[in-house]
Amino acid sequence: MRIPRNKKKSITVLNVYSFLVTILLSKIENSRVLFCIDHPKACIFLNGFAANNTAYYRSFGIAVDEYTFYEGRFVPMLAEERKNKILELISEKKIVKVTELSTLLKATEATVRRDLEDLQAQNKVHRVHGGATSVNPTSRMIRQQDLLDLCTEEKKRIARKAYDYVQDNDAIFMDSSTTVLELARLIAAGGRSRLTVITNSFVIVSLFADTPDIRVLHTGGQIVYALQAALGVVAENMIRGVKVEKCFLGTNGIDPSYGYSSPTFEEASIKRCMMHSSKQTFVLSDHTKFDEFYMCKFADFVGEVDYLITDALPKEPSLALYRTSVNLVLA
After folding, report:
1. What's this model's pTM, rounded to 2 decimal places?
2. What's the CA gap between 205 and 178, in Å, rounded?
3. What is the rounded CA–CA span in Å between residue 306 and residue 325?
4. pLDDT by residue, tens only, the chain of 331 residues
5. Which one, out of 112, 118, 294, 325, has a CA that is 20 to 30 A from the CA of 86?
């Protein structure tokens, strides 16, 4: 199979059995290589055009697989070994990004995505935009930092739709979820006046440093660095002592048979307090949260949430249940 002339200069082609290969690869231990397993003269493409374009070579009928060069020899990166390592990492961290896995496994992002899709088909992981989570880490707190880069475009779309429901002179609660954070960015950028924002999030508070027309109150409470927020009795008592028009909350899971839920009692309790101190409750959730549940319920599926703003509709048969239980708003 011939490689197009205009691509020849983009890659380095070396015979596997060449003495030069041994010398060269000894200098780049553990480097990623792409190995053409059915080429007449098996060849290696190193760190160049081919390293990020396996699909390009497959389009010419060249079967390309992932290999590393380790301790003086080629070691195939077997799919099952990669997948087992992915499962170990997700079990430990509960959430991982494709870019992170690509670096750790020395595999292309396309390879990692295929592995994640296979694992999801086996119900071993849950795919989200940009990465994957464990199938159901029901009781473990997920760090805010780990969520910031997941479903970013979807969160921004949801926030833009939610912004339509914020009116001048509103007093609102905002929790520490990453989707609500996107709404806070829009509010801080301007367009609404004489607002009062009450939040347990330190990140959201910092956004309003230069917005004199918006009054900002922090709940206080026990600092939880993983969430960059405050939780606990002090925060809950502050929330119970006020009454506002609206609260905007995130959620980790929504299940018709269970309700809206979060991994910890403390997170769920803050959300419940905000709901009970608000005239209207808005939940901002991307589609990956549908039909998922976590240990601690903060709202029943029916009758407690006024608006659910999302980027994609739930699948049938759940969709009918959502439509009859909440004002479902598509961003």
Report:
1. 0.63
2. 14
3. 9
4. 444 444 433 333 433 343 444 444 444 444 444 444 434 333 444 433 444 444 554 455 444 444 544 445 544 557 888 888 888 787 666 678 899 898 888 888 998 999 998 888 887 787 877 888 776 555 455 666 666 677 789 999 999 999 999 999 999 999 999 999 999 999 999 889 999 999 999 999 999 999 999 999 999 999 999 889 999 999 999 999 999 999 999 999 999 999 999 989 999 999 999 999 999 999 999 988 898 888 899 999 999 999 999 999 988 888 999 999 999 999 9
5. 294
